[in-house]
Structures are given as C-alpha cells and as structure tokens.
Task: structure prediction
Amino acid sequence: MRRITLWLLSTVTLVVLLFSYRTSTGGSVQTDSAQVSTGGQTSTSSGGTTYKGSVVSTRWGDVQVTITVTDGKITDVAVPVYPSDNHKDQEINAYALPVLRQETLEAQSADIDTVSGATVTSDGYIESLQAALDAAHQ
Amino acid sequence: MTTRTLARRAWVEQVMGLPVSLHLRGERLTGDLIDERIAAVYREFRHVEAVLSPYRDDSDLSRWERGALHLEQADPMLAQVITLCEQARRRTEGWFDPRGLPDPRTGRPRYDPSGLVKGWGAERAARHLAALEGIGWCLNAGGDVLVHTPDDQPAWRIGIENPDDPARIMRVVERRTGAVATSGSAHRGTHIVDPHTRRPAIRTKAVTVAGPSLMWADVYATAAAARGPDALQWLDGLDGYEALLVARSGLLRATTGWPAA
Result:
C-alpha cells in the first residue's frame, strides 16, 4: 500500500507541476507539497485494482488521480479531477494529460532511472519523460 | 539487486537554459554534507554559465568575442574551453566546429562552444559529489547523462528516447560509471549544423554515444549527427566509446561493442 501511495503521490506531483509550470527559465521547479492518501479501491473486470487518490487542492484547482494496478504494475493512469477553468487549463488537459499517462506507463515498464535524448530545453522539460522520473523521486 | 533498501532523492534546477536533474541513491540522503554538495554542483553550473554562456552579453565568452576582453584577463575557463574545442575539431575530423555557428538569438555566425561546454561543465560540477562516499548519483543535463555507482549498488538504467516520439524509450542501457550523451533534433528542431556546408544537418535523427567522459561522448554524438550514417565506422574506431545511430530513414545502427540491455 505504501508503494501505491507513492505512485499516486508522484503522479499528483506531476499534474500539479503541469499546471504550475511557468515558462521562465530561472530558478528551480517548485511544487506544492501534496498530501495523498488512497481514497478507496475497486476491482476492474481485467483483474486489476483501481486505487483512487484523495482530491488534492492546489493553487490551480483540485486534482485527483487514479491508478490501476495489475500484478503489481501500473496498467492505467487517469486524472478524473483537474483544473479546467480557463483556456490554458483546457489546453494542458487536452495535450498533456494523455502524454502524462503514456509517460508514467512507459517509465515504469522500462524500469529506467533517467533518459538520454536530444537536448531538452527548459520550456520543453515539463512534457518530458525525465520530468516524470524527477517528480517520482522529489 | 541488493538486500537493503536504498533511498532515492532527486533535485532539478534550470541552468544554462537546461533542466539539470540530479538523483542520489544511498542508505542516508539527508544532512548538511548532502545539502552542501548539491548546492556546490548547481553553483558550479551557474559559474560555467556566467563565464561561457553565448546567451549572455556579460559572459566572458561574449565580451571576448566583441573584443571587449582579452583572453589573458578572462576567467581561465575560457582559454581551456577554446583549447578543448580545437582538440575536439581535430579529433572529429572537423565535424565538431564551434566557429561560425548561428547565434542563438540573432542567427548571425559566431563562436559558440556550447556543444562542448555542457558536458565539460557537467563533469566539473559532478566533481563536487566525489566526497559523498557510498552514494550513487546520476546527473542529467538536458538529456546528457553522467553516473557513478558504488560497488554494492545496481547499475543505473538509462532509457534512450525515440527521436520520433520523445515520450517513448527505444533502448535501455545500463551503466555503472561514465556517460551517455545524445544529439538530435527531437526537441529543438534541426539545430545541429554541418560545419562543412553551414547548413542544418539532416542525415541523422539522433546519435547516442556511451563512454567514460561526458564531454567527449557529447562532442562525438554532435559530430556524428552532423556527419550522418557514415560516421558509424569512425565511431567504431574510437577507443572506449560506443554509439547508436538513427538515420533519417529511421534505420537504427550501432557500433559493434554497443551494450545490449
């Protein structure tokens, strides 16, 4: 259960990062600390268990994350509650949330620590797989 | 895998226009020594940036280029980097060349050693971690990676991104020490310049080089990305360095010693 809480926490951190990211290139990336507890679990038809994270209030709005775990591995990530008040939020939702889901699954299945790739600029960082890996350990 | 549990901590800062992340692994990752060493790493990056950034008008590099600063009066790092760049140009048979590169802001040709400074600066910064006994570390400067692993820890697993879809990993390589650097156009478009034609290099999508030094791995990767798939034979002859190359066609090729994982 501790591991699942950690997974939920790192995904929440990343969602919060997505909404808090400023395009300035100075300074370190700051995240609000989010307290996450697992808010219940349900079984899915495919034999996995879906864990629901608590709704976390952030400066940008409420965020909730669910993950589905099958045989000890995350098989799905969903963000049922997220900020969608303004145009920028909606843009992030449409583009970044599917990417986030893909990246969480990818990083886990490859079991990697870091990513080597063409030079990532500060602006592109937040969408990068490396950002997901950093958030998971911050 | 080890029987004891390893703690893991990560830091990220934006320096030199890049996200620089540092991950530590060890039994105990808190305390003044850790905080001080981490701060020293990022301080070193900022110092390198202040002296050698082509983006800053007040850097020693920019002032020297404008003729406002003599090399002898500049920070000694500038002269060191100029010497290393000349060495890099010779070692890569002219395919790495800081001369006449487009200015990142104006596009005008200028002397830009950034392709070497990133790896060189990261190696300098990582020296501040040598005092951390029994701690493994993984430094990633905008996609170029340098790692260290104590004997009792597992190797770091480095994913190499797919140049067609940077959210995906195309290969995984395990390293205990040394570097993995990638040059390509996935995030910044075709910014690698063919030094012979002064045109954007388009013959490769990405080149990854693994070897002992991050500076040289990055220099070789940039040179090979400009040179094209023909560079593979040249890369094969480099002692201690192995490479993976994705041609424009998407064909993936590796040097004979490329580590399988």
About this structure: Chain A has one domain: 2-137. Helices of chain A lie at 2-20, 87-110, 129-137.
